[in-house]
């Protein structure tokens, strides 16, 4: 008679099941076995048995470990403590087997053998260890050159797409940017001091494979300034292949209708291209991104409480992000760092507790906010521009002349 | 058997993270005891400045201050820039403001996605 009949149900069917994985870990780990027991109990009772909160960590850091305790430790001693250790991932998730084995061996020994490789933010998530093991785990991983990730109201571990390691579309070195920012902002990462969390995600092209426009406070998306490169011969090959209907699948799908196809020649009005990547994705042999590359910087995604989920808004349409070999790590991407620190300063000054920068920007008003940030920047220009206006005001009852007089009187 | 510790003949109940269950029972001896438990041998005047700030804030607002407010207080009290204030805070309380300083100061355990 199985101890976990409800969980066993989840193992049926054609798909892999987390239950099988936990049971496998249960061969060497009491924590994994008791996880099965407690989760089964919760399924039966339809109530969780994890307590709320838990403040644990390692010496010197205020972040990186999420505390969790069971409310039934006598019944499930293996999960009395069930803390999560976040380990800073390698940029682009490019690992050797040896280096993954390093972490997993430490986790088999000191944790539960269960991991979530990787969590949504980007860190490796090691699930289920006790308070006594935290310092030893940290020592073990640090000896091998690993470090903890962020948690709480801090800079969370930056993450990125695979970028130039593997992808022809990458227009910025997402891996180096992420590695560089992570190492430069270690204080902000390990010692929470912000109003709330702050996430930076970097994608090499507007396909945005890390969904940075939706999932990060500061989105860095590779882009180009000049024209899409067209190979006329390859266009003809696509047309002749019979596999693609250039008119219907490409030209008519363009969101700004900036393309023209007469059956022989494809023309693009590049000044109206919004970089959706559709045509390039569909005809990669014929169409390529431009050569003057850099990044679009956007701000304010997430923040689901006040306004509902938001996508980030462009604050810098084009920023060069080239790092030269001669520069020190600290000197690289100076323009980006200047912008980041200006954003933090304005947000930190008046941000409420648990207010994401996107919500803060809405509360302050994008105009006021970008003016305040711009004042702190020498290199980067984020002053509000006419192109940023979504729609003209339609409320005739705001008398701006009077408003400004009042402000000056104060 | 409740978690906690005995000090000067009185029993102080704590949760599994070591925070006082009844924060009205806090006194300076408790602070010194908790500090030693945390590996802080002696609470210096700088330690006490932080404890006072935390307790005053909690008394007025019934919640623990945001860390940035604590940092601003330290910057003002000790005339430091933000990075140095953060460093000072972790030098004094190596396990961090939420985990250690608040605990020793007798504030309730902070909540949230820590």
DSSP E strands of chain B, number: 2
Structural class of chain A: alpha+beta
* CATH-derived architecture of chain B: Orthogonal Bundle
Order of helices and strands of chain A: HHHEEHEEHEHHEHEEHHEEHEEEHHHH
How would you sum up the major sheet of chain B?
2 strands, antiparallel
CATH C-level label of chain B: Mainly Alpha
Helices of chain A, by number, come to 15
Q: CATH homologous superfamily of the largest domain in chain A?
A: Sulfite Reductase Hemoprotein, domain 1
CATH fold category name of chain B:
Arc Repressor Mutant, subunit A
CATH class of the largest domain in chain A: Alpha Beta
Number of helical elements of chain B: 5
Strands in their spatial order, largest beta sheet of chain A:
5-6-7-12-13
Structural class of chain B: mainly alpha
Distance between the termini of chain A: 78 Å
Overall, the morphology of chain A is: globular
What sort of overall outline of chain B do the alpha carbons produce when their principal axes are compared? globular
Mean pLDDT of chain B: 89
Distance between the termini of chain B: 28 Å
Give the radius of gyration of chain A: 25 Å
| Average pLDDT reading of chain A | 93
Radius of gyration of chain B from CA coordinates: 14 Å
């Amino acid at each position: 008679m199985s101890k976990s009949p409800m969980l066993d149900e989840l193992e049926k069917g054609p798909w892999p099941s987390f239950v099988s994985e936990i049971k496998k870990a249960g061969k060497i780990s009491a924590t994994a076995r008791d996880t099965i027991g407690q989760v089964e109990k919760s399924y039966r009772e339809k109530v969780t048995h994890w307590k709320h909160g838990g403040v644990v960590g390692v010496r010197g850091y205020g972040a990186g470990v999420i505390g969790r305790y069971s409310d039934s430790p006598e019944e499930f001693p293996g999960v009395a403590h069930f803390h999560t250790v976040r380990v800073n991932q390698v940029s682009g998730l490019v690992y050797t087997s040896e280096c993954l084995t390093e972490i997993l061996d430490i986790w088999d020994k000191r944790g539960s053998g269960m991991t979530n490789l990787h969590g949504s933010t980007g860190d490796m998530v090691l699930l289920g260890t006790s308070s006594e093991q935290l310092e030893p785990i940290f020592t073990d991983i640090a000896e091998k050159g690993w470090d903890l990730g962020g948690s709480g109201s801090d800079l969370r571990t930056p993450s990125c797409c695979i970028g130039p390691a593997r992808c022809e579309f990458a227009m910025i070195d997402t891996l180096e940017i992420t590695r560089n920012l992570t190492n430069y902002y270690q204080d902000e990462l390990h010692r929470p001091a912000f109003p709330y969390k702050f996430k930076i995600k970097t994608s090499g092209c507007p396909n945005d494979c890390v969904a940075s426009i939706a999932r990060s406070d500061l989105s860095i998306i590779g882009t180009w300034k000049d024209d899409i490169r067209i190979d006329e011969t390859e266009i003809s090959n696509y047309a002749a292949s019979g596999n693609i209907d250039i008119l219907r699948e490409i030209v008519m799908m363009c969101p700004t209708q900036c393309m023209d196809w007469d059956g022989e020649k494809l023309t693009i009005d590049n000044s109206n291209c919004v970089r959706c990547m559709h045509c390039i994705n569909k005809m990669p042999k014929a169409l390529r991104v431009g050569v003057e590359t850099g990044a679009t910087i956007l701000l304010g995604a997430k923040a689901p409480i006040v306004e509902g989920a938001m996508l980030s808004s462009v604050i810098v349409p084009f920023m060069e992000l080239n790092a030269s070999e001669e520069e020190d790590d600290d000197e690289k991407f100076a323009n980006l760092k200047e912008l980041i620190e200006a954003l933090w300063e304005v947000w930190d000054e008046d941000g409420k507790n648990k207010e994401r920068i996107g919500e803060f920007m809405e509360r302050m008003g994008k105009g006021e906010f970008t003016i305040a940030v711009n004042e702190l920047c020498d290199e980067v220009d984020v002053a509000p521009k006419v192109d940023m206006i979504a729609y003209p005001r339609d409320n005739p009852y705001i008398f701006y002349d009077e408003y400004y007089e009042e402000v000056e009187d104060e | 058997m409740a978690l906690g510790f005995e000090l000067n003949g009185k029993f102080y109940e704590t949760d599994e993270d070591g925070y006082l269950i009844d924060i009205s029972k806090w006194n300076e001896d408790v602070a010194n005891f908790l500090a030693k438990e945390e590996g802080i041998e002696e609470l210096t005047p700088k330690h006490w400045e932080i404890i006072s700030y935390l307790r005053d804030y909690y008394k007025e607002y019934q919640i623990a201050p945001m860390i940035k407010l604590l940092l601003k207080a330290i910057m003002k009290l000790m005339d430091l820039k933000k990075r140095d204030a953060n460093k000072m805070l972790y030098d004094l309380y190596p396990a961090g403001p939420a985990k250690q300083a608040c605990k020793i100061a007798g504030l309730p355990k902070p909540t949230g996605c820590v």
